[in-house]
Amino acid sequence: MVKKIIAAVVLLSLITVAIVQAMGNEPTKNDEKDSLGGLNIGAKAPNFSLETLDGKQVELSDYKGKKVMLNFWATWCPPCKKEMPDMQKYSQQAGDDVVILAVNIDPENDVRAFAEENGITFTIPLDSQSAKNPVNELYKILSIPTTYFIDKEGIIRHKVISAMQLKDMERNINSMQ
Asked: Is 137 in the active site?
């Protein structure tokens, strides 16, 4: 009987300590604004090299000194399709210090026809699940569309996991130095 009481007291003490410690572990500001999954805001954006829709090789590092909107999408994704017209508008009004890279993660579908039908003129790198090291895995893409906003130094400053409107693109790019 005494052993059971001692065991219960020890167990209750351990539970109390665990609860007190858990209550003291509040998330930091960075954790609060980055609970979306994927690469963390404030992290260095990993470099990559992909072939574009027009057959050129593109690397993220080619755009150091520019603000980059790095979008991951697919032609079969309804929210991706919805944001494409606003991305096209934004690409036409953005200055020379802004680059849009819309990485298509499923180039086995007819990306060229989609781009032509929708009048897309910004750069579309082609990634593939069948590639040895897909860029979408490097960026930990869990759902599409996902967009990383990368500053002139190559640091991820914002992340959006959903379709955006023109105002969202403007706000995220304009908030970066």
From this structure: no
Q: Which residue has the tokens 């072939």?
A: 51
Whole domain around residue 104: which residue ranges?
Answer: 30-174
Contact 157, 175 (CB under 8 A): yes
Q: Are 39 and 139 in contact (CB under 8 A)?
A: yes
Which residue in 80, 101, 135, 144 is the catalytic one?
80
How many distinct structural domains can be found in the chain?
1
Catalytic: 171? no
User: How do residues 43-91 score in pLDDT, each as one tens digit?
Assistant: 999 999 999 999 999 999 999 999 999 999 999 999 999 999 999 999 9
Choosing from 77, 94, 138, 166, the catalytic residue is: 77
Query: Is 3 part of a structural domain of the chain?
Result: no
Q: Is residue 95 part of a domain?
A: yes
